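lol forgot to send this yesterday, sorry. C-alpha cells for the thing we talked abt
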C-alpha cells in the first residue's frame, strides 16, 4: 500500500483547489469559509489515507496517530488492526532462529559481525573435488533437467509456477510468469541447460520442484580494494539463482535444501563458487534489504481487487484523476529500442551501473538479450536526439499476478522497473514517460524497488511504499552491507 508523501498531498490539494466547484460527491459543497477550511483539512487527511492500501506497511507513527479510532468505520478499524499486526511481523523479521540447512552453508549467520572486507567464505576449491553424483532425493522423486524450449516442458514449468510460486502474505496474488518470459529469463547468452533443474514424481513424472541458475558477471565492492591482499578478481563469475519452487502439497519436507545443494553442485562443477539471489523471506544473511513501491495506473481495478484501498474520505473520481497520465510520452525523441541501439545502450547502462557497489557487468550480447523489446515480456525505449544520438534509456518488464478469489478479474498486469539511465533529463522525467508507456500498454500498476537512484522518482511520481520487502543475498561471499541505493542489480 502506498504510503502518502508530500508530492501526493500537494497534488491532491492542488486538485482540490482546482476542483472547488466540482461535484464528484455533492455532499462536500459548502459556501462558508470556515466550512471550507475544515473541508481542506479533511481533504488533506483523505489524501493521506486514500493512497494507503492494506497490503502495504504503514509507519508505526502513522498507525499510532490513527489509533484513536474516533468516527472510523468498522472497515477502517479492521485495517488499522491489520496494519499494526504487520508492524509486529516486521519487527519479528530479524529475530535469530536456528536454520538447520542455512547454518551448514557458506553464508554469514544472522548474529555474526558485519565484515569490513570482502571475499569468499569457503576456501577456493577445484571442480574435480566436487562430487560427481547428484544429491539423493527422497525415494518417490527423481531429478530432471528441464528443456524450456520444449513446449510441453515449458508448459509443465508454467503450471508448477503459476500454481505454486510466490504469493503475497495475504494470498491474494500469485506471480504468473508467462512461457515467453521464462524463456527470456532462463536463456541469456551462455545459459546452461542443466542449471534448469526439476524434480519429478517417479510414478507419474509430474513436475513438483524447480530451481534455476543463469550465469552472470557481478561486481561487488566491499572494501575489496582496501584489503591487504586482493583475494580474487573484483568482477566475479556468479550464478543468479531464481524460481525455487516446491509444489504446495510437498512443502516443509526439506526438499528445498536438496534442490539448493544440487544446483550448487552443478554450478560448482562449472568452476563457479558464488551466487546472487533475492527472496522475500529473511534468511542468513541479507547484504541488502530493499522495498517495493507501487504506482497505480488503473486505480479503479487495483481498488476493486483489493490491491489498493480507497481512502475513507477519497472518492473514486478523485483517485482516478490523481493517477491519470497523458496518452503519449512527453519527452521528444522517445522510441522503442532497436538492435542498432545495442552498442550505445551498453555504454549507457554499463557506465551508469558502475556507481553502484553491487552491479552486473554486461556485454553487447547480454544487453541485446536483456533489453531488446519482446511483446508481453520486456519493453525498452530510448530517447534519440535530433542529431541521432541515443541519450537516455528506460525499460520495464511484464510480470502479471493471478488475482486469487476475485469474481471480476483474474489477472493483475504489473510492469516492473528495470534498467533506466537518464543523461539529458532528470530521472523522474524519463520515468514519467515509462509510466505513460506502461499505461498505454494497459498495465494496471508500475512497480519499482528503492534500488539504484529510484528514490529520485518514487516520490515525485506518486509511488506508494509497498508491504513487500526484497532481500538481496550472496552465497559464499562476505562483504559489508549495501544500502538499497547501492544496489545496481534487478533480478527477475
Ligand atoms: S526466491 C523464491 C522462493 N520461492 C517461493 O517463495 C515460492 C513459494 N514457496 C515454495 O515453493 C517453498 O516454500 C520453498 C521452500 C521452495 C521456497 N530461499 O523444503 P523446505 C529454506 C532459500 O522444508 P518449503 C528464489 O527463488 C528455509 O529457511 N531458502 O521448505 C531464490 C529452510 O532452511 P533452514 C529458503 O517451504 C532462491 C528450508 O528452506 C527459501 O517446502 C534462492 C526449508 O526447506 C528461499 N526462498 O520450500 C535459493 N524459503 O531450516 C538459495 C525457505 O535452514 C540459492 N527456505 O531455515 C543459494 C545459492 C545456490 C547456488 C550456489 C552456487 C555457488
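and heres what i got for the seq, position by position
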Amino acid at each position: 500500500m502506498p504510503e502518502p508523501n508530500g508530492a501526493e498531498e500537494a497534488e491532491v490539494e492542488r486538485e482540490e483547489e482546482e476542483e472547488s466547484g466540482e461535484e464528484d460527491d455533492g455532499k462536500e459543497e459548502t459556501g462558508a469559509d470556515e466550512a471550507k477550511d475544515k473541508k481542506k483539512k479533511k481533504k488533506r487527511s483523505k489524501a493521506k489515507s486514500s493512497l494507503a492500501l492494506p497490503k502495504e506497511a504503514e509507519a508505526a507513527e502513522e498507525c499510532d496517530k490513527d489509533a484513536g479510532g474516533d468516527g472510523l468505520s468498522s472497515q477502517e478499524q479492521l485495517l488499522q488492526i491489520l496494519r499494526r499486526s504487520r508492524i509486529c511481523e516486521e519487527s519479528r523479521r530479524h529475530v535469530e532462529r536456528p536454520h538447520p540447512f542455512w547454518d551448514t552453508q557458506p553464508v554469514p549467520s544472522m548474529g555474526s559481525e558485519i565484515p569490513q572486507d570482502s571475499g569468499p567464505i569457503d576456501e577456493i576449491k577445484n571442480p574435480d573435488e566436487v562430487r560427481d553424483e547428484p544429491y539423493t532425493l527422497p525415494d518417490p522423486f527423481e531429478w530432471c533437467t528441464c528443456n524450456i524450449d520444449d513446449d510441453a516442458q515449458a508448459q509443465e514449468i508454467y503450471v508448477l509456477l503459476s500454481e505454486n510460486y510466490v504469493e503475497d502474505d495475504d494470498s491474494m496474488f500469485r506471480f504468473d510468469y508467462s512461457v515467453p518470459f521464462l524463456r527470456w529469463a532462463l536463456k541469456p547468452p551462455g545459459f546452461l541447460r542443466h542449471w534448469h533443474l526439476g524434480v519429478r514424481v517417479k510414478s507419474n513424472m509430474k513436475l513438483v520442484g524447480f530451481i534455476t541458475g543463469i550465469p552472470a558477471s557481478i561486481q561487488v565492492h566491499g572494501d575489496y580494494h582496501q584489503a591487504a591482499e586482493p583475494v580474487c578478481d573484483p568482477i566475479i563469475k556468479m550464478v543468479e539463482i531464481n524460481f525455487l519452487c516446491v509444489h504446495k502439497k510437498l512443502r516443509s519436507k526439506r526438499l528445498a535444501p536438496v534442490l539448493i545443494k544440487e544446483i550448487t553442485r552443478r554450478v560448482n562443477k562449472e568452476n563457479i563458487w558464488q551466487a546472487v539471489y533475492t527472496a522475500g523471506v529473511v534468511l542468513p544473511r541479507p547484504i541488502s534489504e530493499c522495498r517495493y513501491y507501487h504506482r497505480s495506473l488503473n486505480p479503479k481495478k487495483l481498488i476493486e481487487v483489493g490491491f489498493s484501498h480507497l481512502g475513507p474520505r477519497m472518492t473514486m473520481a478523485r483517485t482516478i484523476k490523481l493517477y491519470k497520465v497523458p496518452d503519449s510520452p512527453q519527452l521528444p525523441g522517445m522510441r522503442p529500442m532497436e538492435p542498432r541501439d545495442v552498442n550505445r545502450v551498453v555504454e549507457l547502462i554499463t557506465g551508469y551501473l558502475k556507481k553502484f557497489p553491487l552491479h552486473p557487468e554486461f556485454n553487447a550480447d547480454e544487453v541485446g538479450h536483456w533489453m531488446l523489446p519482446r511483446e508481453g515480456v520486456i519493453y525498452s525505449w530510448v530517447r534519440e536526439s535530433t542529431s541521432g544520438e541515443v541519450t537516455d534509456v528506460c525499460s520495464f518488464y511484464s510480470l502479471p499476478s493471478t488475482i486469487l478469489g476475485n469474481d471480476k478479474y483474474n489477472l493483475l498486469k504489473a510492469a516492473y522497473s528495470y534498467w533506466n539511465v537518464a543523461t539529458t533529463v532528470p530521472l523522474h522525467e524519463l520515468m514519467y514517460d515509462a509510466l505513460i508507456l506502461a499505461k498505454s500498454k494497459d498495465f494496471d500498476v508500475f512497480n519499482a524497488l528503492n534500488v539504484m537512484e529510484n528514490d529520485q522518482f518514487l516520490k515525485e511520481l506518486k509511488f506508494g511504499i509497498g508491504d513487500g520487502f526484497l532481500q538481496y543475498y550472496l552465497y559464499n561471499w562476505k562483504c559489508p552491507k549495501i544500502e538499497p541505493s547501492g544496489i545496481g542489480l534487478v533480478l527477475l
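The chain has a mean pLDDT of 84. anyway ping me if u want another try
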